[in-house]
Design a protein that fits this description.
By secondary structure, the protein is α+β, with helices and mostly antiparallel strands. The chain is built from four helices and eight strands; from the N terminus they run ββααβαβαββββ. The N and C termini lie close together (10 Å).
């Protein structure tokens, strides 16, 4: 009998661009545009305040993230399927991403941290329990992200690249996704007998949120967040 585990959680991405890009979690370089890539190399942004809006933009996604309170990132109370995420024009193309771990929060106020950390099968501790970061805590993980001409993410390419990048080998056999018919479900089949903790993953998106604004220096910032339910077989 296959073991089935389920996880609900929020995944948030930070994208910043003027002719410069910064992320507290990921760094990006655009492959197809040499001029823009050269410009990016000249700019280093170190201020964490760059990511989040000032008080004038309060109540948005950036404001919620700046408060570092997981309770503010809630699932939608309405049973309405979210629409597909559309990215800004300046994100179209293929990106090389480098991911590094920056910490975690325990959202529960009732379950002691010591209780959670004793069980290695708790989602987040076990490999593949969070598909997009299949080995939580691993540093300097390279993967590719692709934004299509219509502004939608090529999730087949991106998710497979994320999983393979974190696991360090070709783990994904097939990713099934159709953003037109159902942008809220992704199926991932793994190569047989290669990955211990997963044979198949089903992802369901229950809510999305995004925000595009300029910070006080006029730098465009795009934030997007998804509330995902993952079922692992």
């Amino acid at each position: 009998m296959n073991r089935i585990t389920a996880l609900c959680g929020r995944i948030t991405w930070y994208f910043v661009l003027s002719e410069a890009i910064f992320s507290s979690v990921h760094s990006f370089s655009l492959e197809k545009d040499a001029a823009r890539r050269d410009t990016l190399k000249k700019v280093i942004i170190t201020s964490g305040s760059l990511l989040f809006p000032s008080a004038a933009y309060s109540e948005g996604l950036g404001d919620k993230l700046a408060k570092k309170d997981p309770s503010l990132l809630k699932n939608s109370v309405f049973n309405i399927p979210p629409s597909v995420q559309v990215y800004p024009d300046w994100m179209k193309g293929e990106w090389q991403v480098m991911s590094s771990f920056r910490g975690y929060l325990f959202p529960s106020q009732t379950i002691p941290k010591s209780t959670l950390t004793k069980d290695v099968t708790v989602p987040g501790f076990q490999k593949c329990s969070i598909a997009a970061t299949s080995d939580v805590g691993k540093e300097n993980v390279p993967w590719k992200m692709k934004i299509l001409n219509d502004g939608q993410e090529d999730r087949i390419t991106t998710l497979a690249s994320q999983i393979d990048g974190y696991l360090g080998y070709k783990a994904v056999a097939q990713t099934i996704y159709n953003g037109k018919s159902n942008p809220n479900r992704i199926s991932v089949d793994f190569v047989d007998y290669k990955t211990i903790n997963a044979e198949r993953i089903e992802l369901f998106c229950n809510a999305r949120e995004s925000e595009l604004y300029k910070n006080d220096d006029g730098v465009p910032i795009f934030l997007c967040s998804e509330y995902l339910r993952q079922v692992t077989f």
